[in-house]
Specification:
- This protein is an all-alpha fold.
- It has one domain.
- The longest helix has 26 residues.
- The protein is globular.
- The two termini are about 20 Å apart.
């Protein structure tokens, strides 16, 4: 969490020093956006489920994320904080900055670039995780491209992290 806070602050300071309007990059929280984010999460999770069902998986492959989190027993508060910060950090960078920055190249390239970067820093999740990350990124990127609203993507990502971390770690009470 601290790493994302420090790197995020440095990145925003760098962009501001270069004349980039920070307000264009950050989400605008709203109740409507929260509701849309929950629906977006459901749509992205459904898409991941369908693609996971269609794409054959090999059960003999070790999933690194399972190994990494085997002995982790964080509290529910920690899982919630990590999920919220990670969703905000990643979507601000991937959609709020990258997709906007490369919008002049068209939807396919701008969203595709954000999906590629998303995939590259989620490779630790292994083969099954990579498929889900790509599908999730395409859904969030496509919706962001059409609406240019970042908050629903932040909510959807945060919920995905919350569900995933709670599942993998069996998060304990407060």
């Amino acid at each position: 969490m601290m790493l994302e806070l420090v790197l995020g602050a440095l990145a925003l300071a760098f962009l501001r020093a270069r004349g980039y309007r920070i307000s264009d990059t950050l989400p605008s929280p709203s109740w409507r956006g929260l509701q849309e984010g929950l629906l977006l999460y459901a749509a992205a999770a459904a898409a991941c489920f369908v693609v996971g069902w269609l794409v054959p998986s090999r059960s003999d492959l070790v999933q690194p994320i399972a190994q990494m989190l085997t002995n982790a027993k964080p509290s529910l508060v920690v899982v919630l904080l990590v999920s919220m910060l990670n969703g905000l950090y990643e979507e601000t960078f991937l959609l709020g900055y990258l997709t906007r920055r490369f919008a002049t190249l068209g939807a396919s390239l701008a969203v595709g670039l954000s999906v590629l970067v998303r995939l590259l820093y989620h490779l630790y999740q292994g083969p099954s995780g990579a498929v889900s990350v790509v599908v999730f990124g395409i859904v969030l990127g496509a919706v962001y491209w059409r609406t240019r609203r970042l908050w629903p993507a932040v909510v959807a990502h945060s919920v995905a992290d919350l569900v995933g971390l709670a599942f993998w770690t069996g998060a304990q009470g407060a």
